[in-house]
From TrEMBL:
Lipoprotein is among the record's keywords: no
Ranges for domain Acyl-CoA dehydrogenase C-terminal: 240-377
Source species of the chain: Methylobacterium iners
GO molecular function, one term: monooxygenase activity
Sorted UniProt keywords: Monooxygenase, Oxidoreductase
Protein name: FMNH2-dependent monooxygenase SfnC
Gene: sfnC
Matches recorded under InterPro entries: Acyl-CoA_dehydrogenase, Acyl-CoA_DH_C, Acyl-CoA_Oxase/DH_mid-dom_sf, AcylCo_DH-like_C, AcylCoA_DH/ox_N_sf, AcylCoA_DH/oxidase_NM_dom_sf
Signal sequence region: none
PANTHER family on file: FLAVIN-DEPENDENT MONOOXYGENASE, OXYGENASE SUBUNIT HSAA (PTHR48083:SF19), MEDIUM-CHAIN SPECIFIC ACYL-COA DEHYDROGENASE, MITOCHONDRIAL-RELATED (PTHR48083)
Keyword Ribosomal protein assigned: no
Amino acid sequence: MLQTDAGWGAGPSARYEELAARFRPVFAQIRATAVTRDVERRLPHAEIGWLKEARFTTLRLSGEAGGHDASLPELFNLLIELSQADSNVANALRAHFGFTEDMLCSSSAEWRTRWTARISAGETVGSGVSETGGAKVGQFDTRLRQVGSEYVVDGRKFYTTGSLFADWIHLSAEDEDGAAVVAAVPTRALGVDIVDDWDGFGQALTASGTARFEGVVLAPELIKPDPARFPYAMAFFQLVHLATLAGIGRAASEDVARLVAERQRVYSHGNGGRSADDPQVQAVVGRVRGNAYAAGAVVLKAAEALQRVFDARGEGDDRAAKAAALADVEVNQAVTVVTNLVLEATTSLFDALGASAIKEGLGLDRYWRNARTIASHNPRIYRDRTVGAFAVNGTAPPREYRVGAS
């Protein structure tokens, strides 16, 4: 079914439907067992493998490099569709797509060539940035030291989303002088231990737990020449969360509509012989769907801002920096709007159904749990303040968001 036929509006490009058609059978296969996986807490190793086989993980590579030449709006629309199938799977690939952007924007031709080949070969990357130790804001306890011609990593990371499914971990650390350094660590290297100890009540299948590094030896080629992130990194990673939320909204809206249509029992004080004909119930379903529609539209509009930054890379530092700052503004001002829309939708959907809707086998509760979990990353109260500072004083948003001891 075309996105327009489903009522979600046109995709971000004339060729979007052709591109999406490649992956929709895989999305459908993923969605078919999403509830069962959530109940059984079964990690989506197979499901991510299907996406790799379909070359979903190479979306942003050029056709010549074995990719799909996907624009950023096309990528984010596909992430909405993937999240509609299972938000855990979409979230688990967040670090991989961020690493891909980092590679595409790297100033090192050698780094770009090496990692284009690896990503084209189907290799994927998980997250190794955040820590829960005592390091101060903007610093890391994880250390990279040089030993002869090689490097050695020691440390501990948390929120290592997608790492258990990946071939590599994108690691942020400090060198012996306290300078920032970025490395790619093989997940199967000696001394790497990835633990599935993420115990959040939502997004439980994203492998967002602990990764330990004890004397892990790295070749020099695995150290990124320039540790700086790509210019729209903060906006990109946050917008993946918003796309995931939009997908949750779509899935919730489709489930509540289906369950209302199937419902046989009615209330004595209702407004129709069938729940599907009750105008009050229809209004609830309509509000849930409208919220999901609006959330997706906001995400795609913000994705256009990221594309402008990508396109401005070779047009001078000032132009690129301005485009990046404005992209941060657009994404920041979308955060609370999209979050509120989806949290409301995933709560109010129960008003259209009876008490049977809370049965575990339907999995409707996972929509709110997953949305609330994603919305708790990078607190939205600070996003509102950032947007207000820009609107009132023209203040550019922060270039990085980091957490640690004060």
